[in-house]
Amino acid sequence: MNPIYLSICIPTNGRIEILKKTLDSIFVNCTVSYSDFEVVLSDNSVTDELLELLDSYKQYPNIIYSKTTAVGFLNSVNALKIANGLFLKLHNNYTMINKDSLDQMVSFVKNMEKIKPVIFFTNGLLGSYDVKQYDSFDLFSYGLSYWNSWSSGFSVWKQDFDNCSLMHLSGVFPQTSLLLLQHEKSTFKIDDKILFTNQEVPKKGGYNLFKTFGIDYLKIMEDATTLGMVSAKTFTKIKKDLFYKFFIEWYHNTKIVKNDFTFDMNGIADSLAVYYGKHAFYKLKILSHMFYFKRKAVSLFKPVN
Predict the structure, then answer these.
(1) CA-CA distances (angstroms) from residue 240 to 146, 168, 218, 234, 245?
(2) Distance (Å, rounded) from C-alpha 15 to C-alpha 202?
(3) Per residue in 213-243, pLDDT tens?
(4) Does the reported pTM lie above 0.85?
(5) C-alpha distances in angstroms, 243 versus 94, 101, 191, 213, 295?
(6) Helical packing angle, 232-241 and 137-144, nearest 10°
(7) Is the CB of residue 89 less than 8 Å from the CB of residue 7?
(8) Distance (Å, rounded) from C-alpha 230 to C-alpha 139?
(9) Residue 232 to residues 3, 189, 222: CA-CA distances in angstroms?
């Protein structure tokens, strides 16, 4: 009997219409054998909406459903636990899979089964749009930067996952904790090809954005530096990238533009002060307004076709 090569592990809570589009992106016009992959749905919602949706997907034998009481982001861990594939791909419920991307991922697993490299999918976010290989976890982490926090980019071989201790995973970044536990492997890859399309999520949020990334995430990476998993140089780069490429844009998106995100934006100055110093918030506000005017200027002078 052939193995299941790929498990697409989707932790989910609500967002039924968004999840439906994701499932359709996988199954409609699918060219991969259903025996080669499975879709794992870990549902920690308090309703049965997802079960009702799955009534219309009964023709697909490779959908695995699990109701769980796993809290928050730890739902991701439950999705990985119940998967059966050789290779486990964590996947946000709003991330659609592009045409031919599923075929590419299954082919990758078949080709890399013996080597079992660590691979992270950055979906063009790094701007290289290719695959880069590294022979050390530190160089891999330097190239990946703060994107190692992105749950939909994370993947792990089931054999490696089963060998991981799950006792001390971060409650908000379990995927980053699991990635760090693979630091002793010998081959690492960043796949920056565009394989997915993220849907817009109304009212996205629900947690304190700046505390979660500015304190909780950076503490994970600081501890990894102390333990020798990554170098001080890599930690410095992650901190810098997080501030200039993440915090500035998100402050712009949530405080200046004031869209419908539901992030808790309290205590930004205190959160930034822990790793960036007491003047970081003022710097953030100035640069975020500059970012706003730059984006505004680009939109005003954009050629009209």
Answers:
(1) 9, 27, 11, 10, 8
(2) 9
(3) 999 999 999 999 999 999 999 999 999 999 9
(4) yes
(5) 25, 32, 24, 10, 18
(6) 10
(7) yes
(8) 8
(9) 41, 21, 9
